[in-house]
Amino acid sequence: MEHDKGDLIYGLDDKPSVKAASYAALQHVLASFVGIITPTLIIGGVLGLGEHVPYLISMALMVSGVGTFIQARRIGPVGAGMICVQGTSFAFLGSVLGAGFLVKANGGGPDEMLATIFGVCFLVPLSR
Predict the structure, then answer these.
(1) How far apart are CA 81 and CA 70, in angstroms?
(2) Which of 63, 89, 100, 126 could make a disulfide contact with 47, Cβ separation 3.0–4.6 Å?
(3) 24 domain-assigned
């Protein structure tokens, strides 16, 4: 297929080959892992939740998958109807770490810190 540098490789309704689509999909998944896993590693490392980090990573990936599925498939009026990877955000690190340090300062252990963090993550988006 001949094309100029300024032309698109694929048009709106074109379908790339399985090989090309697979490479693009793998690249997209690997790139999104960094943004999904890094906040979890920061939270676990700073708050000393070493043994709970694998659980936190699993939950971040699970919630990202469910959110992405809802965005892509449109459940009722919710979702864009296209693939929009949903993931964790660095914007909430201050709130999450603050809540974790508050619990830790009051003698709470990892279970109490995680319960508070999950509550903060649930309630902060609802307050907007």
Answers:
(1) 8
(2) 100
(3) yes
Residue 92: what residue type? F
Q: Kindly give the interhelix angle for 110-126 and 93-105, rounded to the nearest 10 degrees.
A: 140
> pTM score, two decimals?
0.75
Q: Which residues constitute the domain of residue 22? A: 18-126
How many structural domains are present in the chain? 1
Angle at 92 between CA 91 and CA 95, to 5 degrees: 135
Buried b / exposed e over 3-31, threshold 16 CB at 10 Å, is eeeeeeeeeeeeeeeeeeeeeeeeeeeee
The pLDDT profile of the chain, 128 residues, written as one tens digit per residue, is 555 556 788 887 888 899 999 998 899 888 888 889 999 999 999 999 999 999 999 999 999 999 999 998 998 898 888 888 888 778 888 888 999 999 999 999 999 999 998 888 777 666 55
